[in-house]
Amino acid sequence: MPHTLLFHSAAKRFGPLFGVLIISQAVSGCVVNSKSNNKTSPGDASFVTGSLNSNSSLLQRSDKWAAKWQKNPSDAGVAINYARSLRAVGSYKKAVQVLQQASLKSPKNQAVIAEYGKALSTIGQFKQAMFNLNRAQSLGTPDWRIYSAQGITLDRMEQHSKARKYYKTALGLKPDQPSVLNNIGLSYALEGDLANAETYLRRAAAINGSQPKVKKNLALVLGLNGKFSQSAKTSNEVLSSQDTTVNIAYLKKMLSQPGTWQKLSGKSRIARSKLRKTKRQAAASPRKITTLETTKATS
Q: Which of 100, 270, 276, 283 has a 20 to 30 A CA-CA distance from 56?
């Protein structure tokens, strides 16, 4: 049975519409999906995203790494892989415990500390997560994956503008990385800026090797924009026609409810208002905006 993947607490701000956005958290070359520990609202369960892996294979993988970890808990690589397998089956707190032990045994291991920060982020310990991610970044050469994880954590903290600075720093190190473009798009979506969300998700989806989740997110954002035919076409590339039909019907039903469009367009108006204010400030103080641009480029 297909299951829904959640994008942290966005559902409580925008209703269940954004509860199915899928983030991309890159870890050592592979993509790990993160979801909140919040209970799924009734509306979330109606939108089909499809299973990325079968539950049985994920459990088998977790059991395999559990056995290896029990034999050698001091092995940093084993601890990281065991923690990832635990997160994949929803055992987020156990993953944090495993990585906490690993971080104490390997306090200067960048990969361990970064993974610990990511795990903390999944259980809502955002300040501790950022502390460890910053610490990990200081332990080696700048890593785009860590910058992306910092962006994800800030998005979870609803600091979307700041989150996108981290994503763009990640892109500076890894240009056109689909997972980062995906997360920028979702960051805009969480703010209600569907136009920019669509732009970045289209960029991500057009890159060879992008994950199916990118097109699923693009299909959702297109649907939220009322572009149902485009949404269906994109969805059919990664989901069955039956699932696509269910999703389009779900979106139409949700968007037909009183106040939904007003909430979405209201958030978009706020984003546009912020942009106009920034432009006015730039025109009034060109020297100040130059400093800001330099800061962005070097952050």
A: 100
